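My current task is to audit a protein record that another person submitted. I have pasted the whole thing underneath without changing anything:
***
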Amino acid sequence: MSYPYPLLKPPSFAWDRSAAPAEPKVNEWIQTLDAARAGEFDWSNVDVALLGVPLSRSSISASAASENPDAMRRAWKYFTTYNLDHDVELSELHVVDVGDVRQHVTDIAKCHSHIREAMHAMRTHHPHVLPIMMGGDHSITAMLIKGYKDAHPKERVGILQLDTHFDLRDLADNGPSNGTPIRNLIESGTVAGEDVHNIGLHGFFNARSLKAYADEVGVHYTTLRQARAKGVAETVRDALVKLGERVDTIYLTVDMDVLDISYGPGVPASTPGGMRSDELFEAVHAAGLCKKVKAMDLVCLDPFKDRGEATVKAAVHVMLSFLTGFKQREQ
């Protein structure tokens, strides 16, 4: 099917951008692709494309993460485009919301196939544009990276994973769920185990067998306790340097369950002892600065479980913090 529509589905709503204020809010800045003229759209000056991936039927625990893309879109109104901490104005970037990957009501395999096709199409039609995906559960990451590899078969892809979990569960028991995306990529030969760096693991939320598998295939991992001793942002920078020495592309995947339950109440697998929100913002900002980070996703946020939009707002802040680093990259 043609790109973007009908391959994708237009967003369920779009913000009014007709006012064009001098100092816009994020909802007045991000452009929503006009479905009626999508085929005529000029991608030449676009910097970033946002894609919703509303799938959560593949979650181990009950989740409405499929509702997150629209929840994030609605929360854009709370944020300006100016980052005071870094004195960066994001409105100078051209960011376009292309809508959502079409999903099937019951067929998860078909949903995954659509996700893979969508990423392949994005990389084929506008390979210079940075894709940011709003999930959805973590199963989508395996499909997005496979789609990236379909479009760039000669590139070696590495993963920077910010997560409370390894996501290395056995596919034989769990299938292509949100508990298996990293193992899926390793066992399919899409990504080498040694090209995965996981930062944020902590506490009592990973079985010993998963650590054993990580050691067996060479996954690099840093517990949150270890990262805090060194500095979370510094740990991320070190991982990016090590990955950058081996791979052509680094894919950043942010599982919002890396946050402590008090900072991220709206995640299905929320846990005590996780990151503070400021640590996560600094981590993704560091990733945004790295030129080899060429795609990002944000997953596992259930707005139906959220409290006062705390986690949804944190997710938007994560996206904007990453874009701050992206904007600051040396030209």
The two ends are 35 Å apart (CA to CA). The longest helix spans residues 310-328. The mean pLDDT is 96. The CA atoms of residues 101 and 114 lie 7 Å apart.
